[in-house]
Amino acid sequence: MDTAVSLGLAFGFGIGLTFNAALVGAMTRARGGREGALLTPVSAIPVLAVLLMWIAYDEGDTKLPAPFDALAAVLGVLLIGVPLLWMVVRGLPLWYGSAGFLNGLGLVLVPRFIEDLGLTLYVSALTLGSCAGALLFDHFGLLGFAVKHVSARRTAGLAMVGVGVVLVRVA
């Protein structure tokens, strides 16, 4: 994968992880910390099951230890994971269940990003994306967070993180 594409995707992944953290925070406010803490791992289960089914279909097995090496076992995980996710988000907007989507997807993509960019550049781009996402969430007060408008100082702080990414890239 091209370095620029990997950098852009790592930046976008950072924004997505901010969205994930905001969803967990919103659920924690709605239901309490215990259920909020369950949201990400439970919502990642269906994503992981679909990815494992894809691997099992494409390659014949998942290369996982038994019983998860067969398509039927992974399908069983999916059939358990979806109702479990429904129980966690019951009474809330269904899109809250998307919180773990990026985490599940990240388990597949992050090794590729690190291979393309190196760990330091990947973490730098991810951090820049997370900071940019947090700035937007604060500015608009998304998902019930307090509004904290973008200021020159906050923008300068984000720019400094961006300069750090450039320095890591050219070093």
Would you mind describing this structure in some detail?
By secondary structure, this protein is mostly helical. The protein has one domain. The chain is built from six helices and no strands. It has helices spanning 3-31, 33-59, 71-89, 101-117, 119-140, 152-170. Helix 1 (3-31) packs across helix 5, helix 2 (33-59) crosses helix 4 and helix 5 packs antiparallel against helix 6. The longest helix has 29 residues, at 3-31. The mean pLDDT is 87.
Please outline what is shown here:
The chain is 78% helix and 0% strand. The protein is built from 6 helices and no strands.
How do the strands and helices of this protein lay out in sequence?
Layout (H helix, E strand, L loop, with lengths): L2 H29 L1 H27 L11 H19 L11 H17 L1 H22 L11 H19 L1
Helix pairs in contact: 1-2, 1-4, 1-5, 2-3, 2-4, 4-5, 5-6
**Mean residue pLDDT:** 87
Largest pleated sheet:
none
Q: Kindly report how far apart the N and C termini lie.
A: 20 Å
The count of β-strands is: 0
Residue share in β-strands: under 5%
* DSSP summary: helix tally: 6
**Unreliable spans:** none
Oligomeric assembly: single chain
Shape: flat
Gyration radius, rounded: 18 Å
Helix content: over 70%
SSE sequence, one letter per element: HHHHHH
Domain count: the total is: 1
Decide which structural class fits the backbone.
mainly alpha
Task: Summarize this structure as a short list of keywords or feature phrases.
mainly alpha; 6 helices; single chain; flat
